[in-house]
Amino acid sequence: MLMLKRKMLDKLIAWKQKAGGREALLIEGARRVGKSTIVEEFGRTQYKSYILIDFTRLPRDVRDIFENQRDDFDTFFMLLSAYYRKRLYERESLIIFDEVQRYPAARELIKYLVADGRYDYVETGSLISIKRNVANIVIPSEERKMDMGPLDFEEFCWAMGEELLAETIRKSFERLVPLPDALHKRAMRLWREYLLVGGMPQAVADYVEQRDFGEVDSIKRGILQLYSDDIGKFANGDAGRVRGIFAQIPGQLSKHEKRFTLASVDKGARSREYDSAFFWLEDARLVNLCRNSTDPLVGLGLYEDNDSFKCYMADTGLLVSQAFADRETTPDDVYRDILFDKLSLNEGMLVENAVAQQFRANGRKLYFFSRSDRADATKTMEIDFLIVREYDNAAMKPRISPIEVKSTKRYGVSSLDKFRKRYAQRLGKEYVLHPRQLEVDGERIKLPLYMAHCL
What we know:
The chain is of the alpha/beta class.
């Protein structure tokens, strides 16, 4: 498969330099987002040697080493080195525990391996917090966590050979100067391709080489089937509820009111009964939950309403295929219509999902604002996203930035106007993400959708 350039590699290199062997790194992420690939590349390019231990296929001999030699690291390392035919060099070798949740005892051993200090350790895993994966083990405090998701739009541009355009988009955002029309059109075309292909590495690599949406759709459906199998295997008693929620995501997002309503899954559903199912989906990194922050202050999480949330899919390309899960394949004309902006499907759901995906890739937790007042329409408003950014007119102190996402060129911004009027003292810049050119209107900045990853 084509080797894709990922931002995670730079983060790994920075971690290595800063940690100096004093901590292990745990990379969490959904299956098939490229965790194993990137840590192998890290081992290959940044160390004299590395060993990757895949706990999904743990050979009996390796299990015996972990079980019988945990108190004798000299023998432990000698046997590992011999089994994998890799010489280990003190402070110049990396040991990778791949899919470590499959063998929690190895994760517990990290504390002592780090204290031993001979080598560096990176763990990868999904469903790390599920009870069965932490039962009866002491979680090592010497473990730093990092999230890894699908490719963001900038990484997609790199994969497509558009590194210079990606660089120009960044500079355009920083200077708040629009791109020339020809480049704007090219960037919008790439953005639409990204909506369809998404950021799962296997789908992106195939699209780069073949430019065939049918093939890409087949790959994405394979990934969705893998997730469905995982739900059956690992969600225990919640499997039915988890599947019900996952199947409903496209329907919920296609509504004007995008908040998740449990009645669509089960008419008699109570939120308490579904809490663990949503936790499972979020922990597996299959969804991005966006919670209502009822009082928009810089500490958005202090006022989150856990009963009012939107549920996005972690990858927009998978959302496209999931929207047509009732058919064996997604029709080619659907992909063509989205690409050429002649869509019958609700494009708003794809665009908003993709923006949520960019924010999560930047490490942001997702929040929105919603207030309804039947007695006073001036107090009813819905803001798609709230983020915190430094504000240049307040000595770079953090302020709330409300963000509205628009999928069409013609739109209204009444909610944004009401929000500014009510909360002006708390706000910094406000943003509208739309398909049009960049435009600055005082404190309101209208950005093309392909700049979402810059926020």
